[in-house]
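User: Structure with uridine-diphosphate-N-acetylglucosamine, tokens only please.
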Amino acid sequence: MSANQGRESAESTEAATGMDEVWIEGGRGLKGSVAISGSKNATLPILTATLLAPGVYRFTNVPALKDVSTMLELLTLFGVRSRREDGGTLVVDSTNAHNTEAPYDLVKTMRASVYVLGPLLARFGEARVSLPGGCAWGPRPVDLHIRGMQQLGADVELEHGYIVARAAALRGNVISFDISSVGATGNLLMAAATAGGETVIENAACEPEIEALGRFLVSMGARVEGLGTPRVSIKGSTELHVASAAMIPDRIEAGTFLAAAALTGGDVETAGVDPRHLGSILNKLEAAGVSVEASETAVRVRAPKRLRPLSVTTAPYPGFPTDMQAQFMALLSVADGASTIVDTIYQDRFTHVAELQRLGADIRVEGNTAFVQGVDSLSGAPVMATDLRASAALILAGLVATGETRVSRVYHLDRGYERIEEKLQGLGAAIRRVRA
Ligand code: UD1
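Assistant:
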């Protein structure tokens, strides 16, 4: 990509069309080192935080992903301009930000769009944001976001599919979530960043991406304490200012490559990661018989020929991430024995099961539990990606399946993985994108 190309939506991810496929010839053990990109889920809320104070922000390690382009496109509607500089720095200019609505057309393609709610309310005293609706694996409510805004003093109505929130002035309060929610914690932190007095969030999400957002708000002038713990407090400031940030590494991308290495009996180093964020994933890999070596910014795994089965239960951070559940299902589908996977975050997040079954996996789902009986081998077939992490699981399965696996609808993949086929090629995989 040439530099200064204008808005990020002009980036390579846009070149992919909905009809692209990824073709994989399975059976090669992965070997080598792969550089992990910046975190998608940290980047998205941090970009919306630029609405809180006008000015020119500079961000590094921002991944070139479809979801990031979508967020920048959404922010463009609010008068926020952005461009990539030489060297990859993303410059975001919110000097002329103004208030308008976040339309259904964009919000339905990316639920994280709801992250504009808090900053808009904080900055303009009003926000109109489309309700995101459900997703491939069931309803995904935003009631905690709405109730939290109300507790900060906002008047919130649902009108014609839109959340309409108004507040002459937000004031701090104690907000106690009954469920730990990444998005609601992030949204409330941003809303409270300009509120009068102190806001305390109990049962706050401890995810590193929320910690990164909180640190960014601190660098903008907010006073935040307890980040990374379930009790976060924030003292609002009416004098927030421009700041810059380097995005933290994407722990889910890293986990996906580590799982790919483990699955293929490989020997792979993920570079540019924060191993502290990968604890639950690395513990499970070790329990499956993988040797794990972590330094300050890299993790190397060496896998045996056959993995041991596991029992995996997803949970809020520092528990095992639901965003790694599908990839581990691919991995366990060829382990030596019977595994169970319980998803406690999303009860129906199993759309990948039917596709893995097409490759020969032996999986039975009951409620939110998948029983996976490891098979000796998978066999390549055409399969369809149904969502972001399901796509990754199918790619992983394709890496060990005999013969060719063709994954269609890979636009899901482009939402969250930067150049995944190139990175896997670099590790020796026989994988290519076939443009429609
Ligand atoms: C974020 C991540 C997503 C990840 C998820 C859980 C981003 C952009 N996305 O999504 O990749 O899978 O965390 O780790 O960071 N809930 C409610 N009411 C609400 C909000 C959430 O009931 O108002 C429930 C959800 O249905 C779910 C649980 O809370 O069961 C956790 O969801 P949440 O942490 O909010 O997920 P997201 O922030 O949407």
